[in-house]
Amino acid sequence: MRLKTSLLKEPKHILYCIHSHILCICAHRELVSCVGWTSADELYSCSDDHQILRWNLLTNDTSVLVKLQDEIYPIDLHWFPKTVSGKKQAVAEIFALTSTDGKLHLVSKSGRIEKSVEAHRGAVLAGRWNHDGTALITAGEDGQLKIWSKSGMLRSTLAQQGTPVYSVAWAPDSGRVLYTSGRQLVVKPLQPSSKVLQWKAHDGVILKVDWSAVNDLILSGGEDCKYKVWDSYGRLLFSSSPHDYPITAVAWAPDGELFAMGSFHTLRLCDKTGWSYSLEKPSTGSLFSLAWSADGTQLAGACGNGHVLFAHVVEQRWEWRNFEITLTKRRTMQVRNVLNDAVDVLEFRDRVIKASLAHGHLVVTTSLQCYVYSAKNWNTPLIFDLKEGTVSLIVQAERHFLLVDGAEVYVYSYEGRLVSSPKSPGMRMDILNTQSISLSNDTIAIRDTTDERVVFLFEAQTGKAIGDGKPFIHKIEVVFIALDQCGPSNDRRIALIDKNRDLYLTSVRKLGRAHSIYKIGSMVDTVAWNDSANILCGIQDNQFTVWYYPSVVFVDKDLLPKTIFSKDSSELSRSPQIVSYVGTQVTVRRVDGSLVCTAVSPYPTLLHEYTGSARWEDGLRICRFAKDQTLWSCLAGLAMAHRELSTAEVAYAAIGEIDKVQYINFIKDLPSKDSCLAHILLFSGHVQEAEATLLQANLIYHAIQIHINLYNWDRALELAVKHKTHVDTVLAHRRKFLQDFGKQETNKRFLQYSEGVEVDWEKIQAKIEMEFAKERERAANSSVRSSVSVRR
């Protein structure tokens, strides 16, 4: 990926426009201080020659919007946000302009100055609207930060310091402000009593900052000639090597995936993790300001030599299996099949904004339409019109794909049919990214944009909330979510990484029980699910780790450590990111931007395939062939999950779990299906479900006995009293338990019932024998009835 740049000083068509009776030629004669986009194809630029120019990229026309007064030297320009939470505003278009005379100007799109206010002593170095347009902040040479209403009324002075504030940026929630203080960065909440975060960020004065609303990352550049990426807690994620000159401009792309950095005769395009896609050396002088168009495809720069720099992103690449796709021009893509070197060229009517390649389909969005290509046929795409035309994210699953378009989320089938549009009141859909939204064939998971502990779960087919409609709430902030891609919807799992870098797994559908959440990893940086089996890979504490069967925690959590494969990941360098896990190949992006591929054993994928289609003999055969304890452990967990006791017995024996083999044999000898099912649930630790199954089948003694075995004495007595049976059995076992440990009874309830109930072991044994006989008789009758119905 790189930026294709062009410098415009003398436009192709010069228009003569008369404003305030002044005849102006449309070219800047002095340094350009700031630029701002009004639309994807129109830009305003301000210069020390006191002119504001309007640049139309469709017609290559340029016109003088207004000639400012001689004492106004512009420094910063920022347009009033056109969208709030993705929805277009009905407010008149206006921009804030700051200048060296200490004034803040509110200027209309036609160039008329609606209001000018004395804002600071000395120059006003920065002015920024917050994300919903309800407030404007200015930073001055006098060291003050002031907040203004959208009509230009002073609301408050947020901060005051002894050094100039060169740059300022709003937090994604507009509740905090980031600003520079010499070599330090300061994050100050608007709430007066809240804690201020401050840290030394550079070895020289910090000149520019930006804070992405989508990924919540902070960007800074300074006189130490470095640019750095920080998280919102002030932790350093990336620091560049020193450049030749100070960093004078930084800007996040709207989707938070890229950023641009400017210096003297230097423009660099970088990934959000910091590594560089491309380095351009245009003859610009210093780049004082950079601005991205709303669709994220174009960049404009204000140059110290009077030029306006225009650049657009080209040579983006997407890869999937044997296909490599490159954006060669703004409206052209090239598809290459690396197996036979066949090349197809895809042409589009409008500029390509977003694209995604996965699951055998290429999805491309332009400003007006969405194109869906099948990897089997690149000649005839399916085309449909977009509702908003401002797509910021594409997420694909096997059966359908998801578009974040404006303030809405839409799920489409690959045939172009709108499947659903999940909604959650108050959530900003326009700032969702790949870490905060996940899609599977039946489920959509979205992390809340206001409370990051909350994860909303929706049915993909209907867009309605799953179950009782309540979201999943984690104990601390969640930074990453991912749904597994295979298997039935009732077994759908979601993996999440929280702020402490702990990895958790939980069920999407509760099925009548509370959310069981299990911690399956710690110090985890990045994870990805396999596309064809529910296998999870990740980077855990500098180890490349593969969880061959992570859902084993819901069956037998003791098996989890035995189903994990780990190897040293030192060749992947520090802080790598997993890009994809397709088939047996994991693609990892290193911190320097290079891609590294690592292979995973094919046997676990085959094992998942065999067990999913009930080919248990094949599963046993592959484990015997591989002679791998990890594989046997996976088979044991998979067999118990599918209640295939014979296979589970063999697998547990192979890994030396003799106690579990004995328990499985005990389950197999039970007379009825209900008691078998209950003990399988008990095997997995689901005591309440096991009890409910037995009570529903009227197997009261069995329900009491499992609590006696687990020493849940109070519950065992409660069931016996409630159903008026086997009270003496509970009392006898309790008495024997206390005698074995040489203790006296202290429980009031047991003392109360001991006085009125006689304990006779012979009678108790006879009752137990009678219970088993009844159960065997009932099981025999039910099997006879079922065989008769089959004959009929």
From TrEMBL:
Residues 631-777 form the IFT80/172/WDR35 TPR domain. It is found in: Cytoplasm, Cytoskeleton, Cilium axoneme; Cytoplasm, Cytoskeleton, Cilium basal body. GO terms for biological process: cilium assembly. WD repeats lie at residues 117-149, 199-231. It holds the Pfam family TPR_IFT80_172. Residues 315-603 form the IFT80 second beta-propeller domain. PANTHER family: INTRAFLAGELLAR TRANSPORT PROTEIN 80 HOMOLOG, OUTER SEGMENT 5. This is Intraflagellar transport protein 80 homolog. It comes from Culter alburnus (Topmouth culter).
